[in-house]
Amino acid sequence: MPEQLTEHVRTLADGAAIPILGLGVWQVANGRETENAVRWALELGYRHIDTAQAYGNEESVGKALRDSGVPREEVFITTKFFPRHRDPVAAAEDSLRRLGIEQIDLYIIHWPEGGPTWAWSGMEQAREQGRVRSIGISNFSTKELDEVLGAATTKPVVNQVQFSPFEYRRALLESCEQHGVVLEAYSPLGTGRHLDDRTIVEIAERHGRTPAQILIRWAIQRGTVVIPKSTHRERIEENARVFDFELSAEDMSELDRLDRTGGTAAAREGKWWS
Ligand code: A2P
Question: In what helix (H) or strand (E) does residue 50 lie, and over which residues does it extend?
């Protein structure tokens, strides 16, 4: 499994390589729960962990990384700027301290609170100072992405959004692709809600796979980087077994039709920050 997972990477517009599959740790408690999930993931061959300042678990991500014995340079670590803080540079320094690492691989604005552009020069500064390798955004619509691109010296390399067959934001995906921005899919399982859907279960049965594997595979075949979350070792393992089968064009169309967003260019149907 480890060799298999590290083979699957995307090259970002700035030349950095990001593993297509990562472990997300949203809503995982700092302490033992995060430490276990991250340690298991690293043991099982994951080389990409996605955390955030707002999750409050960067310390445990860092501890698990150190305890795993996996060399730092083999693991891709994302964290996110909490936009209720003012200064992305100072906040990156705090994240580095909590994570216990020298450089963040990917640092993204968690959501466009206060507007899409104000924090971007601070993000660019964190990159220029070498404290972060790549910079990006999250929860930005096509319009907000366009505004950042208009203001940027260094373009964002990813836009991380809620994305699944049920939230197939086709117009947003297309605008990201046009601008060379990789879409990262968070909540690919609908935070677990999509796993019982009849279509998902039927396709899973046809392939002899699990519903989670079908949803993750769909995200991969749609060209995204995907970060399912689990706190269970066997599920973390199951979620990584997605590179040894393929969904057919018919399966993909059937899944695409589950979209409830109308192919939107929006990142969210409702905004929790405004
Ligand atoms: P748990 O953390 O208890 O394993 P998403 O990635 O869309 O946010 O979904 C995460 C949710 O889906 C969590 O509640 C997680 O539960 C659950 N989950 C993750 N992987 C699986 C799986 N393979 N089978 C069933 N539930 C899963």
Answer: strand 48-50
In the reported structure, the alpha carbon of residue 241 is separated from the centroid of ligand 1 by a whole-number distance in angstroms of 15
Confidence of residue 36 (pLDDT cuts 50, 70, 90): very high
* pLDDT score recorded for residue 271: 86
Instruction: Summarize the confidence of residues 197-217 as an average pLDDT.
Output: 98
Catalytic residues: 55
Its pTM stands at 0.97
Of residues 76, 86, 20, the one with CA closest to residue 53: 86
Indicate the top mutation candidate among 21, 40, 160, 235 to test ligand 1's pocket, ranked by most ligand atoms within 8 A of CB.
Answer: 235
Q: What is the assigned CATH class of domain 5-256?
A: alpha beta
Atom 17 of ligand 1, nearest CA residue: 192
Residue 2, pLDDT > 70, answer no
**Rounded Cα–Cα distance for residues 71 and 59 (Å):** 17
Atom of ligand 1 nearest to the CA of 24: 6
**Ligand 1 probe mutation, 191, 229, 233, 236, most atoms within 8 A of CB:** 229
Q: Closest ligand 1 atom to the C-alpha of 232? A: 4
Residue 1 has pLDDT above 60, yes or no: no
Which 3 state secondary structure label does DSSP give 53? helix
Q: Which H helix or E strand runs over 33?
A: helix 32-43
Q: State the closest ligand 1 atom to the C-alpha of 213, by its place in the atom list counted from 1.
A: 23
